[in-house]
Structures are given as structure tokens and as C-alpha cells.
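Give me C-alpha cells for this 493-residue protein.
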Amino acid sequence: MHNDPNLPVVNPNNPCGDEHPRDEHPREECGIVGICSPGEDVSRLAYFGLFALQHRGQEASGIAVSDGQRLDLYKDVGLVSRVFNPASLANLSGFLGIGHVRYSTFGSSMISNVQPFMIDTRFGTLALAHNGNLVNAGKLRSELMESGIGFSSTSDTEVMTMMLAGADGDDWFEHIRSCMSKWKGAYCLVILTRESIYAVRDPWGFRPLSVGKLPGSGHAVASETGALRTLGCTQIREVQPGEILRLTGEELDIRQGIPPAQPTALCIFENVYFSRPDSNWDGQNVHQIRQRLGEQLAKEAPIDGDVVIPVPDSSIPAAIGYARASGIPYNDGFIKNRYIGRTFIEPTDSLRKLGVALKFNVINENVRGKRLVLIDDSLVRGNTTGALVGLLKDAGALEVHVCITCPPIKHPCYMGVDMGTYEELLAHNMSEDQICKMIGADSLHYLSLEGLLQSTGRSSGYCTACYNGVYPIEINGAQSKTRFEAGRASSCG
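Here you go.
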């Protein structure tokens, strides 16, 4: 574990800014995994599970394990492959384990905010990892501080951990259930005790969570089914909204913690962008849904073009669907450099364009002299999309028509997705014609909300607040992810 719990995660090229560029796509939330496999050291299984969830968070990672007697924890900033090695994994011995990959949707990138959190309680040692965001975390934190409880981090996850430590009830099921009645917002949790793992999903079902049977013995839970299949799991099912699962030995104890919300509010953006295409979400395969998004977009926005190209990688299935429905040939227009990571790009037009060119190389021969239909999954700030359009036209494209497989994002998300503020959201402040002119496209088209819902196969049960501003939970006050950090010392002044 990192030695200084209050040290910010700093990019040496940008000591006062984000570690990652504010690029086109909303930032991923987090990913969690929990594994119970009697007779096995699960740290390596947790490592592979986190590796499969790396796309959900690249700032930090951690694993906590129990051998039935004691809990051990190792965590640090960086990618899974940087944080863990054979030596660190060898020191994590136990048949129970939970893991976390983080992007900071709440609390900044400080070592003290890295998960899992682990504390000693009157019920025994507890470790917890969380994916989501509590909208009432400020109120809950203030109540705890008034009762004399202090905090070492600025994360809502520590608030949840402290609440569990002081919860009412005779067992962990009751402790968790009593807290669930007070938590408002999005949360999927894996909770490690000395003898068991508990998996919890909020009653609205905002974030995904699934459980499966391991090939040897025991069970695993993870944010996405793709990670469970990486671990060889079978008999995979979604953890239902409001459920509490207990993993211990070969047993899988499933109870309803609190009743599910009516209607549920599953994050529809999982279908559009976040989830891996090989995962299943809400009982459907994500890759197939994204193909249907492209097909529906071709119906709503027919374009007289020569070739359909995607912005790799998340838009590839939708581009295939658009090409199939429109009859326009599909081809690759970009090759994505998958090895440069999320580098900081200096905020100048020239260097931003260069930074995009480092990530996306144009295949000139595939776009020169062509009228292009460019498929992307979202358009938030416009900086990346505009640079891509410029690269294509520099390569000789005659026209670039940008088609987005979701509606305009006009409202922030308070449920665990960092989409930016109202000031940062292009579609909140500009018309579609203005955005089209800004990014240099020949035309700009968005999928309608009705078309998006139709492509998922259901007309309700999803949270669509980022598009229409209708939040399933009342939002009170400022919801900045760093709002607990006011007054804390900062090296950035």
C-alpha cells in the first residue's frame, strides 16, 4: 500500500490538473469483484477479474483478502498491472477476496481515496469496495462527524464503511439492510468480513452487478458478466435491485435487503458506452444492443455516403449496424493506438489535435475522396470529435457526417458517472447546428431517446436523466465530486 495516504495522484506534466484528459467520452465509474473459493488463494483470481474490468477505472486498484482468520489489503494508484506483481499477490493469502478499480466519481485522486477501505469494527474487521455515488453522502457524513466519527478520505465509500461499522442488527445481513434504508443513490458493493463476502445492489439498480459459479468451487461477483466469464464462471445471474448476497464456502445465500424501486433506474449509458460488448446487461448482450443502436440511427438519420467508419473501439458494433441497415459499406477509418494510455494533453488547439493523432491514426486510403459516415457513441465536450473530423478531412475525406448513437447529453449524472457540469456539456449550451459548425462536420445527427429505448427492447426502467433531466432520485445541493475537500491543504494552491 502507498505510504502517504493524503498524497494526491499527480501527473508530473500537470501537477494541478486531472490525471486523464477531458476527452469526448464520459468517464467510467468503477469496477468491483468478489471471489469465494475454498481451498484456493483467490488473489490471482481477483487480479484477473480486475484486469477484465480495467476499462471501468484506470486511476487506482486494490485487493483485500481473508483466510478465515485475518484480513490483508494491498492497494495503490495506477493500472492493475502496475499495482500488482507476483510478490504482492503472494502476500495476499486467503480463500475470500474483493477487488476494485477506480475512477474518481466522488473524491479526487488521492491515495486515501483508493479502495477497498478496511477498518476494525465491534463486529470484526471489515473491507468494502463500491461502484456508484450516494447523492445524500454529504448529509450522512455530517451526521457521522457530529457523533464524533472522523474521516481519513474524501470518498463517499468511507461514509458507507463507517455507517456499516456502527449499524444496528445481530448479523451482517441486518447491518447492511439497516444502512440500505438510509443510502440514496447508486451503489454496488462487495463487503469482505473474516468469514464471508456480501454483495449488495441498490434498489434502483443503477450500476450492473452479476454473480456466477466458479469452475472449481465457490462463487464470484463482478460488475460485468465478461469478467465472470474470464474467471470461467457458469450459472451467471444478475444481482437484482435491492438484493444482498452472501458468499461463504459453497453456499450462496440470497436475500432481499429492501424492496426494489418501482420503476427501476438502470443506467442506459451502460448499453451505449461503459460495458464491455461481450457483457450482458439487463438480460441482453451489449454488442447486440449496440448493433441495434446503429440500425435505428440509420433509419432516423439516412445519409448519402460512401463508407461507414467507427470511432474505435466502443462504436464498432453500432457502425456495423448502421452499415447493415443503410447498405453503405463498412470500413475502418482509424487505427487506435492502445498502448499510450490516457495521457495528459495540453489545453491548446494544436497540441490537443496532436494528442488525438497519437491515439487515432487515419487510414488515408480508406477515406480519401470519400463521403464518410462517422459513428460515435457520445459527444460531450466536442474536443475529440472535432479533432477527429479534422484528421479525416486532412486525409482527403470529401465530407464527414457525424452520427451519435445516443441523444444529446444535456444534464450531469449524479449516480456514478463523471459527465461534467452544465457548463462543460456542449449540448446544454449550444444548438445542434452550432455544435456541428464547431466540430467542423458536414452534418450532425443524434439518435432519439425513443430510438435508444426501442433498441434496448424496453420503454421504461432505465435512468435517462443525462438526456432529459428527469432524475429518479431527488438531487439536493451541489454534487461536485470534490465537495468534501474544501478546506483541506493542497499542494496546488
